Every structure is written in C-alpha cells, then in structure tokens.
Task: inverse folding
C-alpha cells in the first residue's frame, strides 16, 4: 500500500531514488540539497537501499564518476545546487551530449555574487542549453513523482537523454508537506529494470567519445535535437501513464489553471505556482478574467503547445525567479516571447521578476502582477521594463 | 486555514518540532505544511517557522506567513529581539515559553488567548538540557484544537526518546491559558 507521510522536498528526492532502484549514487553535499544525499547515505547504511554510494572530493568528480557508471549501463542518481552545479558544468554537458541517461535532482539556488545559499532559479536556468531535459516541480509530491517519471523518460529508446528535476531551494527542499510514497511494487510495475547499453567492456577495450570532426559533430547535434523533439511527446506520455498507474498527474509539459475563458494569462514556474493559483482565484472573485499556465518542462521547451494556449488572449505576463542579463527580463519570459513569435501571436506582454536569493514570492506580489497584466491588456501595449515585484508591491502600498 | 508563525533561536529544535507537528497532523488526515526560514545557520540566531493547517482543501501557497492567527514563541527572550507580533491578525493567539505572568510580557492588545508554559524549566528538569521544543509540542497539543496528543507523544518518543515524551506530557499538563477579550 502507498503510504501517506510528511516529508521534505529533499526527502522526496531521496525516496524516489530508492524506489527507482538506482545502482549507484554519487554525492557531494551543498546547500540546499545536502539532505538528499544525506538521506540516501542513511538509507544505504541502514540497509533500506542497496545502491552503491560514493563520496568523492568535488561535484566535478561526482558527475565524472556517474558518467563512467552510466557508460557501464547503470542507473545512476545525484543531487546538487548552485555552485555545485557550476563546478560540475564540464561533465554535466558531456553527460547529455554523450547521451547517458540519468536523473539528477536540483534544489535551485541563486548564483553568487553577492554570496547567498538561498533560493532562485539562476543555477538551473543557466544550464538550460546544456542538452538535458529540465522538469520543474511545483510541490513535494511532484518532486518524488517526477524523478520516477524521469528515469522512464531518460531511458526511453526514443530519448536517451538525462533528466534534471528542479525544485525551489528551501521553499520546497526544506518544506515539510503531505506526500504519498508509492510502494515498491507499483514503482517496479511502472519503471522496468534498467536496460541501458553497456558502452564499456574491460574484455573488449575500445575508445569511446574520441575527437570528432565537424561533419560528424553536426550529425550528433542534429540527432540530439531530434531526440529532444521526441521527448516532448514522451514527457507527456509518461505523465499520462503515471496518472493511469498512480492516480496523480503533474500535467505533462504545461499545467493550466482556469485558462479556458481567460482573457489574461500569467505564466509561472515552480513553487510560486501554488501561491499564484490563490492569487488567480482572488482576482477571479473580483471579476477579473485571468488564468495561469505553469511551465513544467523547460527543456525541451513546449513552444507549440504554449503558443496554442496563448492564442487569442489580451495580455500575457511571466513571473521569473531568474534574470536574463542583457535582456533586462526573466528567462522564462524570453522563452515565452519565442513561443509567441513562432506562433505569430502579437499580444501585450510583461516580465515580472521576484524571489531572487530566497526573497519570498507573496500572494500580494502576484496579485499586483495580475493587476499590471490587466493594465497591459487595457493599454494594448507591452511593458518594456521588467517588473521588480518587491518594489512594485511597496509602491502599490504607498499609493 | 490556520496560519501559524513560530519563532525560535538556532539550536532550540524549532524546525524539528515543526516537522514532527506536521507529521502528527498529516497522519491524522489533516492538511499541514511547514516552511522553515533560517538566517545564518548558527546557534542562537533567530529561526522562523511558517506553518499552515487546513481541513477543507490542500494547501497551495508556498510563501511565508505574514498574518498569523497563532504565534508560537520558543523563548521569551525573543520578545526583545524580534517583533514576533508583526502582522498578527486581530484576535490572534500566542503560545510562549516563559516563566513570567502574561501581564509582564508586554503583549499587544490585538492578541487574544495566551498560552504559557515554562518549557526551559521542564526540559532542564526532565531531559537535563534546556531545549524547549518537545515541551512546547506538548503545550501545542493542549493549546491548539484537533492535535492528537497521543499520536504526538508516540512520534516524540520515536524521534527523541522517552525523556522527551515526559517533557511533552508535562508541557501538555502544565500549560496555563489566559483568555483575553480583543476589539
């Protein structure tokens, strides 16, 4: 029987790794993910998890060891955050481009400087073009479920790409919430044993991943992008299969909330989405025609699906927990603009930025963003400069 | 939906207490959520716990609590350091670890019901350390309707051992409640 429990987001990630029967976990502690690998270390020590558990001297070595284990055909797992992700960037990139499937949990953290250990999505968003699939969870249950889904996606023969399951540092990583922990038999029925190709064989020595000329490199990249396109279907299919097996869906690529008749849309990502639904309900109660779209899958980006959902709206605002330096806007906002452009949709837009370095995204902030989206709709014009949510709330209160 | 804000100091076990309380509530079939906020992670610095309880629908907000209807203070010396009453709704309740009388604490008029327990004294006596968290958990079970005290004692025993169960039972029994009318 599935078990109801009270778990942190990090404990959910650890439980998911256990349920997926990963062969090897390689861990290095970094705030705010440390309790993921600590929980796994405890489960391995207590005999509740049979994985190998390796603790090298740095995140660069973590991902390098995982790459070797993955090349041996193993199912592998780790978790990291912020500076740890930055330190593993080189093998992170080659993990995806060598097409070694795995799942990594990322408790998101603002990048320094100034020094911070707190929440922000700059770390995860900064590697969005490093070839991995990026799923963003909105609550603790989704962290657990997305990691289970992640192995099925990553190891799917049409995909063979590693999956990054990202969730808000502290706001989810350290949040205790109600979670249903599925039983092992149900996960085994959903996720078959790892059957990845073993690339390395000591009895048949061969060089793998040798220096590659441009013509062949072009083919590799083309193939990777084709697999990314197929992953759009696979992410949605796997979530549908998960819903059939476990009775819970996490909306596949994009979650929609009260969008059917909505003239105005707010686009969100991660944990702020729950708070934003409360803000949408409050705005609806005041007669505002507004709905919410949450981006669950940032890579591959579901541009077509998002464009279709945004067609015919009067204004679209995007709330980011990151900045795109030089664009003076958030990163998911840029992605949304691209989707609108591809779909040939001209609609007033707005970029809102909040929650950097652990700053809270409050319902009042989001209510103010909904007001500003409404202003864009009335004016029929996009807002040129990003809305800094902390300032906007203060200035709205002064008025 | 109840919105509760916990105030403690690093090292007093506030986070562990909140996690355990969430588990008690969730296993009793209620919706509960706890989000901690640390300043610098070191002993003695203020710690905040944002806690929601809902009976009708799952909790969606992932933000901090700004308008608590219950403030829990793990150490009355925090009254001089942090504005623990900031944003509290009119008629909000206070549960505080203190030896003092309510009248000595300078509690604002907006606060209605006040629960007091000498958690340092009880913990020092029973556990041999003045760590207030499990005594305060017992007091919470007596102060907040719908907290299953027996389940709480069982989970405290599993997590912290029998001395802490005794501390929690003393906190439950020795809670003093002052009812105050608010505007």
Result:
């Amino acid at each position: 029987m599935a078990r109801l429990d009270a778990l942190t987001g990090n404990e959910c990630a650890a439980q998911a790794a256990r349920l997926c029967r990963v062969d090897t976990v390689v861990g290095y502690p970094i705030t705010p993910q440390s309790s993921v690998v600590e929980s796994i270390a405890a489960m391995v020590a207590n005999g509740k998890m049979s994985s190998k558990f390796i603790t090298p001297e740095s995140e660069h070595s973590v991902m390098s060891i995982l790459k070797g284990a993955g090349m041996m055909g193993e199912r592998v797992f780790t978790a990291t955050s912020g500076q740890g992700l930055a330190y593993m960037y080189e093998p992170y990139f080659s993990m995806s481009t060598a097409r070694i499937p795995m799942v990594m949990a990322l408790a998101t953290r603002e990048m320094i400087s100034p020094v911070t250990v707190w929440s922000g999505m700059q770390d995860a968003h900064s590697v969005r073009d490093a070839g991995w699939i990026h799923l963003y969870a909105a609550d603790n249950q989704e962290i657990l479920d997305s990691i289970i889904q992640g192995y099925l996606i990553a190891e799917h023969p049409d995909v063979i790409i590693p999956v990054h399951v990202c969730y808000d540092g502290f706001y989810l990583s350290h949040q205790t919430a109600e979670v249903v922990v599925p039983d092992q038999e149900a996960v085994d029925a959903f996720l078959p044993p790892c059957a990845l190709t073993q690339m390395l064989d000591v009895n048949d020595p061969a060089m793998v991943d040798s220096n590659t000329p441009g013509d062949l490199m072009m083919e590799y990249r083309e193939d990777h992008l084709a697999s990314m396109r197929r992953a759009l279907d696979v992410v949605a299919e796997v979530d549908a299969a998960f819903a059939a097996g476990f009775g819970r869906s996490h909306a596949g690529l994009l979650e929609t909330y009260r969008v059917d008749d909505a003239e105005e849309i707010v686009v969100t990502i991660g944990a702020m989405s729950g708070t934003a639904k409360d803000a949408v309900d409050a705005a609806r109660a005041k007669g505002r025609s507004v709905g919410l779209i949450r981006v669950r899958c940032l890579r591959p980006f579901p541009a077509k699906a998002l464009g279709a959902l945004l067609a015919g709206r009067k204004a679209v605002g995007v709330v980011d927990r990151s900045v795109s330096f030089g664009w003076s806007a958030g990163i998911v906002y840029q992605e949304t603009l691209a989707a609108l452009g591809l779909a040939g949709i001209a609609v007033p837009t707005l970029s809102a930025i909040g929650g950097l370095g652990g700053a809270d995204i409050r319902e009042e902030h989001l209510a103010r963003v909904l007001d500003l989206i409404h202003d864009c709709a009335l004016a029929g014009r996009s807002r040129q400069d990003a809305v800094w949510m902390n300032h906007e709330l203060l200035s709205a209160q002064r008025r | 939906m109840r919105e509760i804000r916990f105030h403690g100091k690093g090292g007093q076990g506030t986070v562990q207490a909140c996690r355990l309380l969430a588990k008690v509530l969730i296993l009793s079939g209620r919706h509960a959520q706890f989000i901690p906020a640390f300043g610098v992670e070191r002993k003695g610095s203020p710690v905040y716990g944002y806690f929601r309880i809902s009976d009708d629908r799952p909790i969606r907000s992932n933000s901090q609590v700004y308008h608590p209807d219950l403030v829990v203070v793990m150490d009355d010396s925090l009254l001089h350091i942090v504005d623990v009453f900031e944003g509290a709704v009119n008629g909000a309740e206070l549960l505080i670890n203190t030896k003092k009388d309510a009248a000595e604490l300078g509690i604002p008029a907006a606060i209605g019901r006040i629960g007091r327990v000498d958690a340092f004294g009880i913990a020092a006596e029973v556990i041999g350390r003045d760590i207030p968290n499990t005594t305060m958990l017992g007091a919470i079970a007596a102060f907040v309707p719908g907290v299953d005290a027996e389940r709480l004692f069982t989970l405290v025993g599993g997590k912290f051992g029998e001395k802490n169960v005794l501390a929690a039972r003393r906190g439950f029994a020795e809670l003093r409640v002052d009812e105050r009318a608010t505007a």
The CA atoms of residues 117 and 175 of chain B lie 5 Å apart.
